[in-house]
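Board work, copied verbatim: RING-type E3 ubiquitin transferase
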Amino acid sequence: MGYALSQQLSISLLPLYLRGCPTNIMSLKPSPTFIAAYLFVIGLQFGIMHIQQTKGPKYLIPKRFRAQQYNYLQTFIDTTDLESGTLTANAPETGEECVICMYTLRNQVNNEMQPMPNMISNTYMRTPCRHKFHQNCLQNWMRVKLECPVCREVLPPFETDE
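↓ predict structure ↓
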């Protein structure tokens, strides 16, 4: 923001001098209305920049005009054993592996993509191309590249702020 302020000051010196100083080199009549409007527009620009910097770049855009976000987070569907009537962890999805860390999707992994012992995950992330990953694995991958690690399809960004 300091760079923008210094640039704006250097650009504004001439118009403010010509329209604000009564003895300017071009003998233009001072215009308080022009000075007020000019400073208002500059203040508005810096106000918008400050809001974008503190609240995020999408803050001033109404939600109806924003691109629809893809919901990556999915939950495992446990199947019911019809004979015993209990929930089992042997759903068809439980044997699948995350191709980023090579651990099963049911194992919870930490930020270093290492399995956490005795921790079972109830959620996973599914891309629009229907590939499945651990949440930490895919988020770490998407910080580097917005492509599916399996098929290289372009992925929409994963955003947590709204």
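The beta strands are 73-75, 79-80, 87-88, 107-109, 115-120, 123-126, 132-133.
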